[in-house]
Design brief:
Blueprint: H1 14-17, E1 27-32, H2 36-51, E2 55-56, E3 65-70, H3 75-91, E4 95-99, H4 105-111, E5 117-118, H5 124-134, E6 158-162, E7 164-165, H6 176-180, E8 184-185, H7 188-200, E9 205-209, H8 228-237, E10 242-245, H9 257-263, E11 269-271, H10 279-285, H11 291-304, E12 309-316, H12 323-336, E13 340-345, H13 363-386, E14 392-400, E15 405-409, E16 420-422, E17 434-442, E18 447-451
Parallel strand pairs: 1-2, 1-3, 3-4, 4-5, 6-9, 9-10, 11-12, 12-13, 16-18
Antiparallel strand pairs: 7-8, 14-15, 14-17, 15-16, 17-18
Helix pairs in contact: 12-13
This protein binds iron/sulfur cluster (SF4).
Amino acid sequence: MTANPPDLRPDLAQARLAETRRPGQPTIGMVSLGCPKALVDSERILTRLRAEGYGISPDYAGADAVIVNTCGFLDSAKAESLEAIGEALDANGRVIVTGCLGAEPEYITGAHPKVLAVTGPHQYEQVLDAVHAAVPPAPDPFVDLLPASGVTLTPRHYSYLKISEGCNHKCRFCVIPDMRGKLASRPHRAVMREAEKLVEAGVKELLVISQDTSAYLTDQERLGEEAPITRLARDLGSLGAWVRLHYVYPYPHVRQLIPLMAEGLVLPYLDIPFQHAHPETLKRMARPAAAARTLDEIAAWRAICPEIALRSTFIVGYPGETEAEFQTLLDWLEEARLDRVGCFKYENVAGARSNALPDHVPEEVKEERWHRFMEKAQAISEAKLAETVGRRLEVIVDEVDAEAATCRTKADAPEIDGCLFIDAGHEGLSPGDVVTVEVDEAGDYDLWGRRI
Ligand code: SF4
């Protein structure tokens, strides 16, 4: 539901992708919209193109054609995608569209008839075919070396690791299963090989993503005593990098992961979208409706791994949500005291079954509930961060400039959570360094600390 910040758009990420273009080298630009999963797709496409001898242009002007990887999850994301396609057409003129919105080609060609080709989500071969047709390859075997880690659009010290595609759930507000299909897991071996290559290439933090991380490999094997995600998390943890788990659906077997966090094999961080807490709302969403048991589950996780940070996302203003249901959500949040929280106002998405539900909530009520929810979430975040003042924490350095080093604690995922700033004695630090700090100040979402 979120868009990548503009500095992750390759057309703007000059420093990361700028490279010397050899004479005659065909060159492609890429605009990557949407969630981290779409970013991984963009990285894969660029990796393949780079391997075939294409240059990657950091701007529109230097590109022979531009790929726009779109997001079609919400109507606002669709509008943003159409806008990005229009911008690329104006600036470059030769545009290939891929990604989630590519599943609706007429929607794109209706607005932008001049695009060269439209391909759907993870149709890598078709995107490459479209690129080959628009800008034929001109390989040079002596200079076209694929970097060991592939091309990444994220900074070198962390990398997303996609373990599966698609989802077998049928949440009513979500069209991902229609767009991305049923769960299809990558083999354990293939994921491990990619992770090992990334770590060998200097990656210090692996961000495990998928649409449904805890369902990993359940499309191919039965859930035995140890869930396949537990096995994978343990093996990834043995590589020596930080391992962070995203998009973990609340299955009972999630509790197998918590001891790995307590042991330090996997970061004590669980990104687990709960979406709501009232059983009736959850039922209308077609989500597991056991919020009270979820509180017990959270208490059990915290008993095993007290430093676990819980991140979740919620939807307010879902069709039929009464004031009482919303109040239950607020009370639940107060009790659950989650560390990181994202909140979306419900929006109709073309094709979603929730559109047809009765009693849609007026926009101004959604807005008001969103503010009340965020106010509570912020107060919890502020109180929890205040508790860290005086504590010693390990942090990873993301960026260093003259004024400060911007770092993250183990409780902060890049791009979506807060930061810890070291504004004195940060000279000599480099991105990817892991150092210990003592926290000396806390804000609503960020911390400040000094090296010890
Ligand atoms: S689990 Fe996630 S991806 Fe799957 S249908 Fe529900 S919201 Fe969509």
